[in-house]
Amino acid sequence: MPRILAAAAIVLGICLFGLASGFSQEPPHYTELSFPELANWPQVEPDIFSLSNKSELMVIEDHELPLVQITILVRTGEILVPRGKEGLASIVGEALRSGGSKGYGPDELNAILENKAADLSVSGDLESMTVSLNILRRDLEELLPILTDLLLHPRFPKDKIALAKKQVVSQIARRNDNQQQVAFREFKRMIYGPESMYGRLPEKETVKGIERSDVLAFYRKGFTGANMLIGVVGDVQPDEVLKIVDRTLGRIPSGKAISLEFPPVTSCKDTRQKFIHMPGVNQVSILMGHVGGLRNDEDYAALQVMNFILSQGFSSRLFQNLRTKKGLAYSVYGRYGSNVFYPGIFLAGLKTQSKNMVQAVQGLKDEIVALHDHGVSKEEVRRAKEEFLNSLVFRYETPGEILDRQLHYAYRNMPLDSFEALVQEIKKVTAADVSRAAAEHLHPDRLQMLMVGNKDLVQDQLAKFPDMEVVELGK
């Protein structure tokens, strides 16, 4: 017995020594890491149908669980809200959901959904409104007529509209609580212009002025068959879904298709600097950038690789140079935005200690200038493409995510294979492509800069920015 214990002790000692030796080794540098070749993920194609009321239907089967997810994109949104009524789309969505329908009052509708463990939501943004219903497969034929009645005959009672308005006002009151949210919101307004369609915000006065007649007019114009794109994913058969949807949602009158008009964006050729005073914080959020691009730009793939090299992941220039080497940032981020309907925003930013504000600003600008002037290396492009392409796999793993992607493309009249096409384009991108794109699409001489922090902690540093506009939060 003692010999056995002694042998066990020796083995345990060897194991512990091995573990200790393993822990003492430094982890490999990111440049030493290797990634397996990108695997081809399964191609899932939706079944596409046209309904008699001019709605489009996309169906993807997923029999893993007895669940069904229904998503309806409605061609409307805050883009159609007249000036002085900002916030209307959100109020319509909330009041539509909470107000019930002609056949099902608010309490009855909520009780049915609760008893069926179903989740129903209606939301709106600038470009669209979305109706989502998640249910058990066995409840599809029972709940789809109820959803149809809600979309066909909503009540929009005054008390629910009043409650929706109150909720939006409450959100307005809290929107200056988070430093990063303030920075991104105000930078967007700085790039597009605070009075532009893309920069305007709901205010207490605009919400207060919204009447029930505004809600009804907005609803009646958008919620028609010709403006609906319907997606169904789950434990279903496409032909069966078509029959159920056609006799329910297909009853919604076709109406007139809406053409969404997005005003042009003017790129500001002057540099502007703005500091927003936010009492009580001890860091500074810094953003700089300018108007970005459009999704159909021929350099889109090269710009995505460029963006990855500059600001995405642990191997990006911002992370390595400003956070790791210089220790200037708690967090770094960036994006070359390319929208479909209107130009996106190019931005690079970080969050730093107040005492490092000037140094962080200069470091951030230096990285953008270096990318514009000197381009990128072949090794940076190889590594960025490898990491980027592998990360794409995880964006669309499930049938639900794939359907969301297809709905996104269909709503914007993009080819449904846009994702697959992008993957092939990125594979072909060279260092010369990225360097040329950086030189053409980045404009260091037009950089707009926004900082959000406590001015009492950086008064001496603000003096180094003679053109800086210093404003109070919320003004």
What can be said about this structure in brief?
By secondary structure, the protein is α/β, with parallel strands linked by helices.
Question: What do these coordinates show?
Answer:
It is a single chain. The protein is α/β, with parallel strands linked by helices. It has 2 domains: 47-176 and 188-251, Cytochrome Bc1 Complex, Chain A, domain 1, CATH 3.30.830; 273-472, Cytochrome Bc1 Complex, Chain A, domain 1 (2-Layer Sandwich), CATH 3.30.830.10. 44% of the residues lie in helices and 17% in strands. It has helices at 2-24, 88-99, 106-115, 140-152, 158-174, 179-192, 204-208, 212-222, 238-247, 300-311, 317-325, 357-374, 378-392, 399-411, 418-428, 431-441, 459-462, and strands spanning 47-50, 56-61, 67-74, 119-124, 129-136, 228-234, 273-277, 283-291, 293-294, 331-336, 338-339, 345-353, 448-453, 469-472. The strands form 3 sheets. A 6-stranded mixed β-sheet has the order 1-2-6-3-5-4, with helices on both faces. Strand 1 (47-50) and strand 2 (56-61) form a beta hairpin. Helix 2 (88-99) crosses helix 5 (158-174) and helix 10 packs across helix 16. It is globular, with a radius of gyration of 27 Å. It starts with a helix and ends with a strand. Residues 1-24 have low confidence and may be disordered.
